Amino acid sequence: MIIDRRDVSHGPMLLRQMLLIRRFEEKAAELYTLGKIRGFLHLYIGEEAVAVGAMQALTAEDRIVATYREHGQALARGIPAGALMAEMYGKANGCSRGHGGSMHFFDAARRFYGGHAIVGGGLPVAVGLGLADRLRSLASITACFFGDGAVAEGEFHESLNLAALWTLPVLFLCENNLYAMGTELTRHQAQPDIRRKADAYAMPSEAVDGMDVLAVEEAARRAADHVRKGRGPFLLELRTYRFRAHSTADPELYRTREEVAEWRQRDPIALFTARLRAAGTLTPEALTALEASVEAEIDEAVRVAEAGPWEPVEDLTRDVYTTPWAR
Amino acid sequence: MGKMSYRDAIRSALREALRDDPRVFLMGEDVGRYGGSFKVTYGLLEEFGPERVRDTPLSENTFLGAGIGAALGGMRPVVEIMTVNFSLLALDQIVNNAATLRHMSGGQLSVPLVVRMTTGGGRQLAAQHSHSLEGWFAHIPGIKIVVPAVAADARGLVLAALRDPDPVFIFEHATLYPVEGEVDEQAGPAEIGRALVRREGDAVSLITYGGTLGKTLQAADELAVGGIEAEVVDLRSLRPLDTETVLASVARTHRAVVVDEGWRTCSFAAEVSARIMEGGFYSLDAPVARVCSAEVPMPYAKHMEDAALPQVPAIVSAVKGLLTDHG
């Protein structure tokens, strides 16, 4: 389906989702400094348009595989913020019962297959989900998010090849934020034009401005449409930027403040807010109300996390296997 | 009942599964048109077609991961990795995904995946095609490791693996494929996690599995000529490990020799030995002995390879050593 990019009637919904991700992560960063959240915390701030735009192209039956920087995808998929916050607290009411933390969100009912923290490790799984749907003649497609760092992994190349060879319904979504942790794309790729790597696998591809939520949505719908029609996989490269450090452990020695400041000029939320205001789709009052409702949702998420129970230690080895053995 | 080779017994189980369960499909390198590199899957492509018997590219990590994804997506994939040596290329998917997804997702996901691979030396294939690494895999919680030593178990354990809700890895010693045994094609699945006493005796327990069962039984026959009746325990499954059967045997014989084709250091034999020490220390009349492979990359030359692998005389001599030094 080709959407009319001048139509921004659903704009406030997109803006709200992006804002929810932004505020959720700002709160998570704050809670991290308070010691409520531990482990690694990889923030998505700056990349919100990618998850929100891409998710518009997916149905409830479609499947999603994401990375360890997946707060945005999980929220955009509709997993309750409270279940995600509780997961980061390590609580039993977390979306993975406190077993995964920030890097491993799962929600089987919403077909959200993780939260994969080995770079490139999610791609083969996505290929297999696509294969299952093909073999079962189901109409769903699998959307697989990964970063520019994954492009250097063998699993990326093997997965694109296999998905294309078998004409599988997989939408590969490369979130190119220019840095594989601290290594800039041009320092690890002989061919930094990621989109073109699909050519080697006879797979169609496109690159899009990942700071423009409508551009992402439009491109994702086009790509998903291709996959849904049984024409095989598609590689969509979303050019974006992470405003925050790679993780809470990153001193950011590899990029300049000027570069970050320059990209912040293209903040997807600020840009889209201005656009909706200019189009008359969003009044100042509506924006205030929207922000208040996001704040309330975040407050509720923190309340859910704080109130959540700890998993009993007796359950430590539960679910290592479906049924434990006696011997 | 009838005589059947180990190879044909596996094929019999795979054919039955493909016939009875539309979710079952096979994939791996040369499983289809070539007929399987060890001819295990010979004829199945013609019988079940290319959608269910899928030749893959040489991308072990990705087709193993695709098996995980397909299992998550409702299928019952049987992935063949040509040899255990190549499984090293798939370790990321095995260790980080197959073994973790159930627990890491808080019990939401199940990975009913079956992986078959050839293991072991003895065919003059030198250092990169002769590994016995099933003991390594047995280290990992979340997966099950079975090691059929006879044709009937080869069939029964494949059927059991296909009924198991968790990932099961089947290690098939390459020297066993042509070996014939009694197989009941009406028999259902074997029990995963149950060891069997293959030969009764009262002087010593010889504990082994897979490719070294034959040599161990031969050693027991030689010992019997000299009046030493050895009991032979076939583990059949390394994880879960049937400690109960092992300890019951040692309680009868008071001596144990563990025979394992893996390298001695950190071998599976070390685990068995530790369990005997933990659970059967006071029934022992002598220290547990181990017969393992020499700690060298496998040499090509026949006489050197023979010297590196556990052999009948070494087993006999280990038993005699126990009886002489601690008689």
Structure overview:
The complex is a heterodimer of chains A (327) and B (327). Chain A has 327 residues and is α/β, with parallel strands linked by helices. Chain A has one domain: Thiamin diphosphate (ThDP)-binding fold, Pyr/PP domains (Rossmann fold, 3-Layer(aba) Sandwich). In chain A, 42% of the residues lie in helices and 12% in strands. Chain A is built from 11 helices and 8 strands. In chain A, the strands form 2 sheets. Chain A has a 6-stranded parallel beta sheet with strand order 2-1-3-4-8-7, with helices on both faces. In chain A, strands 5-6 form a two-stranded antiparallel ribbon. With 327 residues, chain B is α/β, with parallel strands linked by helices. Chain B folds into 2 domains: 182 residues, Thiamin diphosphate (ThDP)-binding fold, Pyr/PP domains (Rossmann fold); 130 residues, Rossmann fold, CATH 3.40.50.920. Helices cover 38% and strands 21% of the residues of chain B. Chain B is built from 13 helices and 14 strands. A 7-stranded mixed beta sheet of chain B has the order 3-2-4-5-7-6-12, sandwiched between helices. A 5-stranded mixed beta sheet of chain B has the order 9-11-10-13-14, with helices on both faces. In chain B, strand 2, helix 2 and strand 3 form a beta-alpha-beta unit. In chain B, helix 1 packs parallel to helix 8 and helix 9 crosses helix 13. Classes of the chains: A alpha/beta (327), B alpha/beta (327). The interface between A and B is large, with 50 and 48 residues.
